[in-house]
Amino acid sequence: MSRRLTPVPLSAEVFAPFGEVLEIAGPADFPFNGGMADRWHARALPSAEGGSVGISLARALPRALPLSLEMVERHPLGSQAFMPLSPAPFLVIVAADEGGTPGRPVVFRTDGRQGVNYRAGTWHGVLTPLGAVQDFLIVDRIGDGANLEEHVYDAPWQIVGG
User: Fold this and answer.
1) How far is residue 84 from each of residues 90, 116, 151, measured CA to CA in Å?
2) Residue 124 and residue 145: Cα distance in Å, rounded?
3) pTM of the prediction?
4) pLDDT tier at 161, thresholds 50, 70, 90
5) Which residues 6+ apart lie within 8 Å of 125 measured at CB?
């Protein structure tokens, strides 16, 4: 089996098994603020079993390709959303669950304006900005309980190109 992965463009349709893509696309759902703003409403519905939904900020250091993917993680008790605060692309790495462990990873490249909401229990990689330090808005579960599982692959995957 090849251990090489190539990023593909992120779209709502191909990302649907893992969560939602957060972006301003298509017509707005409704205007507000006296018609001076448009809203794309409820593009993701955060979950937080046994906790609260929190809003946080993060700053991530850039990565360069090729990149060695050694570990993914998941949060079984709540969703986790990341929205970039600058228009720069980053990688989104996910894997389907196969009996409690992650399957073959899939790598997406955002267009620089997209964010993602990982559903509870979705295996995913860490923040992976490309080329420059990047800030993110995070919406996720805050509370007690075991809400982090990590999986280290027996051999790393190499993310190339893209």
Assistant:
1) 9, 9, 25
2) 19
3) 0.92
4) confident
5) 69, 71, 72, 73, 91, 92, 93, 94, 105
